[in-house]
Structures are given as structure tokens and as C-alpha cells.
Amino acid sequence: MTRRFTRRLSSVLAAIATAALVLAGCSSTGGAQEEQAALDTPEYKIAMITHAEPGDTFWDIIRKGAEAAAQKSNIDLQYASSPEAGQQATLVDNAIDQGVDGIALTLATPSAMKGVVQRANNAGIPVIAFNSGIDDWEEVGAMSYYGTDETLAGTAFGKRLNDEGAKHALCVVQSQGQVALEERCQALKDAFNGKTTKIYVNGEDMTSVQSTLEAKLQADPSIDYVATLGAPYALTALDSVKSAGSTAEVATFDTNEELVSKIKDGSVNFAVDQQPYLQGYLTVDAFWLYLSNGNFAGGSKEPVLTGPAFIDQSNVDTIVKYAQKGTR
Fold it and tell me: Which of 98, 168, 239, 316 keeps 20 to 30 A from 325, CA to CA?
């Protein structure tokens, strides 16, 4: 397991270095040359299908990164999403029928996607997995994977709780059975020396999330940390803590503009960032590289990691301006 984590951490550095080179190239050549390069590039049609929950700002950041890469490379990006696994598979089927040049998808429920990925492969359409499914993308039949290692991220979170002196963490899961979320909570629990309680909430109903968390905090005052698995749920957890009269701290996976501001003012202790903008950007850019030049990252065997990394008061000032742009 240690060797696996080491390889994946190396992939993080490679992915970030690649993104830095891309951004440096854009700034040095200027907008006019970028526009001309796009005009000279064959147009490809790429479908991107995610398991986004309605109202979850995390996916807005992924989409913004994907659209930036698409605009740069003259790609017709067709984005669609559904939190329901069956509907995700239908969206993939539709993309295959439309004859797209590539399909990017998330594997929140890998078993539901294996059949349609195989159908895409049979049709000669390359598939790239991103964000979810790091342990399943090869078996499902995807060409490569871009995203974070949820076990590595959860382990880092649990160890950080140890450093913070936490004793009882409440891990809030907004979508029961979603593999990435379950892996985060389990890894957190395995690494944390204190007690971990897992609670499921309805991620599509923030009023329900707030009341569920408030009731739990009132019922168990020993909870001293609320660990959420997405930025909107951390913001709601702050309201729950206040309403319950709890002294629990709040920390989270993932960010958005408001969440970053809450780290800056000390309301949220820290966030584990997986760089969703980078996930969207690199995934779309990977299709352009593959379709135009036969390139693929990771040697077709290793995932390309975009996280995890901590954002806290020690480095949040470097993130604020990007969060305000909607890219962090």
C-alpha cells in the first residue's frame, strides 16, 4: 500500500507540473496565438458525464476547467450529469449513439458503467475516467484516470485530526453507497486515533442536512469535529453547530469560494483539496493529446493524481483570488 501511495504522489507532482507548463504557455503566447491555434486544430466532440448532485458547486469548478481546455483546443464539449447511476449509463449510451470522439465519465458506481464503457470501446470511442473510480477504472475499461486517491486523502484527513487533538469525529456522507465518499470516510476512520461516527444525510436537501446534523450534535456532545465530504455540506454544518450550541470544529474535503473565505476567517479549520478545475482541464486536454497525437499519461497503467493537498490558514491567502474566479 505504501508503494502504491508513493507512485500516486509522484503522479500528483507530474500532473501539477503539466498544468503549470500549459498555463505558462498560454500566458507567453497571448490570446491571439491561442485563437489561431484553435482555428488550425481539427474539431473533436467530447461528452463529459458526471454524477453531480444538484447545487453542488464542486462540479461547477470541474466544468469550468473542462470548458477552458475545450476552448483552447477547438473541442465541442457536451456536458451532462445525473446523480442516478442508471441515468448516467443512459447518457453514455446517448453519447455513443451520437458518435462522439471521446467520453469522459465519473465512476461513482462502477458496476453500473462497465457495460456502457465496453460498448464505447467496441465502437472505437476512447473513454477516460476522472474524479471517482480510482480503484476500478482499469477493470471497467477506461483508458486512463485523472483525479485524487480517496484512500490517501482520507488517511491524510484522519492524521490531521490526530494532530488537531480531536477525540470524536462525525463523518457526514451526502450520498450513501457512492464509492469515493465511502472510501474517504473509511480511510479517515482507519487513520484517526479517536472515535469516528458516520452519518448519512440527503445531499439534495440542505434543510434536511442541517436538521439531521443539528439533532446528532445535540444528542452527542462528545463530537468535537464535523468532517464533511463536500464544501456545501461544510457550510451547512457550520449552521448546524451553531444551532445545536455545539463547540465542534468543522473541516471538509473540497472547496468553493465561500468555503475558502470561511477558512480565511477561521470558521472552517481546513479543507482537503483535489483541484477539481485541474481534473476537468486535464481530462479534456488528454483527449486532445490522444486524438491528435496518440499521447496518453500514466503509461496507461497508473492514475494521474490531482490531489490531495491541504488548504488552511497557513496558505489560504494564495488560494483566495482563484476561488473568487471560481477555479478553486
Answer: 239
Supply the CATH number for residue 84's domain: 3.40.50.2300
Is the residue at 327 inside a domain? no
Instruction: Supply the pTM of this predicted model.
Output: 0.85
What is the total count of domains within the chain? 2
pLDDT score of 18 more than 70:
no
**Residues with Cβ within 8 Å of residue 291, at least 6 apart in sequence:** 44, 101, 102, 126
Same-domain check for residues 282 and 143? yes
List the domain range (segments joined by +) for residue 99: 2-147+274-307
More confident residue, 183 or 11: 183
pLDDT of residue 28: 42
Report CA-CA distances (Å) from 166 to 8, 98, 237, 248, 299.
Answer: 28, 52, 17, 10, 40
Asked if omega into 54 is within 30° of 0 (cis), the reply is no
State how far the Cα of 30 lies from the Cα of 152, in Å rounded to an integer: 38
